[in-house]
Amino acid sequence: MTQRMIKKSLLLLSVALLGMFTSCSSDDDGPKDDRQSVQINKKNDTALLLCSFGSTYEQPQETYDKIIADYEKAFPNTDIYMSFTSRTIISRVYAQIGKAYAQPDLWFDAIADAKYDKVMVQSLHIIPGSEYVSLMDSYTYKGFMSKHPDLKVARGACLLKTDEDVEVVAKVLYNYYKPNLDKGEVVAFMGHGNPEDEYIHANGRYQQLQDALQKLSGKKNIFIGTVDWSELMFGNVRDGIIDYAKSKGLNESTYKDQVVNLAPLMSIAGDHAQNDMLGGLEDGQTADKVDPSEADFKVLPNGDIEFTSEYTWILKLEKLGFTINPIGSTIDPEKFSVIGLGDHPELRALWVKHLQEAKFQTWNEIFD
What we know:
Layout (H helix, E strand, L loop, with lengths): L2 H15 L28 E7 L6 H16 L4 E6 L2 H11 L6 H11 L3 E6 L6 H13 L9 E5 L6 H20 L3 E6 L8 H18 L4 E5 L7 H14 L11 E6 L6 H7 L19 E3 L5 E3 L5 H8 L2 E2 L20 H13 L5 H4 L2
Parallel strand pairs: 1-2, 1-3, 3-4, 5-6, 5-7, 7-10
Antiparallel strand pairs: 8-9
Helix pairs in contact: 2-11, 6-7
C-alpha cells in the first residue's frame, strides 16, 4: 500500500468516526491531547461555531481566516469559533503547524457552560453528505440541542444544499474560469463525495453542478471527478478531456496543445488537493509506471468498493500528454497557487447567506 493510500485510509476512518470543520482555540501552548476541553472568552450573547473536516496544511489556514472575517463582518455582535471534526486532523495540525483545534462537541460543551442566549452552527461542507449530516444530527441535534432543549439554535446549510445553490455556484466558477475556457482550455474539479449509496442525493450534486457548468460553457470542457463516489471519479475527467481534445482535432501526439486547469471542489486546497490531485511520485513509484487508465476502484466479493488508484490526477494527465496550467496548480509553498471554494468571495457570501436565512429554533420547537 502506498503512502497516499495509507493517508486516504486514515481520512476515511476519521470520516466514519465523524467528519467536519475546524475551530481555533486559545492562544496558549495548545491542548495536551485532541480531546482536551476548550476555553471560551465570552464577549457577546450569541455564539457562532463554524465547522469543517479540517486540514493539516498551512495554506488552507489563510482560507479559514477569510471565512472567519466574512462572518465577523456579517455578524458583528457574535463570538465566533471554528471547529474541525476529524480527530486525526486535529492531532496532526497541532503537531505540524502549532494550531490548536477541537471537535464540535467540545465547543458545544464550552458554549453551554458560558450560557449564551443564542447559538449558530455553520457547516462549511460542500454537499449535504455524511459529514454534513453528522454535524447537524449527531453533534448539533442529539449531542447539543437535546441537552439544552430551550436554547435557540440556528443551523446554516452547506454550500450546495439546494438546486438554486447549484446554479449560483456554477455561475461563480464559470465566470472565474471563463478567460481560460474562451482560450479553449479545459477545467477539471476534484470533489470529495461519499462512498455510501445512502448519500446518492448528496453525491448527485456533483453531476448536477457539472451539467450546469457545461450548459453555461456551451461545451463539454468542464468536468468534475470525486475522491470517494464511484459513479464520478477520475475516469470521468480523463475521458471527458480526451473527448474534448479529439473534438478539436487533437490526437495523442498533439495532446500537449490542450491546456488543463485543475482545482479542488472543496472548501480549501488541503490534503486531497495537494495529495490526490496535484501530488508527485511517492517512494517506490516511478514515472514509467504511471498508468492513466488505472481503475479508480474495484468491487469486492461482498459488494463493498475498494479504491485502488495509486497515482495522482496530474501525473496521469501529464502521462497522457496534456499540459497542466501551472497557474492554480502549483503546490510549492513558495509559489502556491491552488485555491479552494472558500477562496472565492462570492461563494463565501453564499455560505454567509445560508446562515442569515437560518431560523433560530429550540429542540422543543423542532420536535413539538
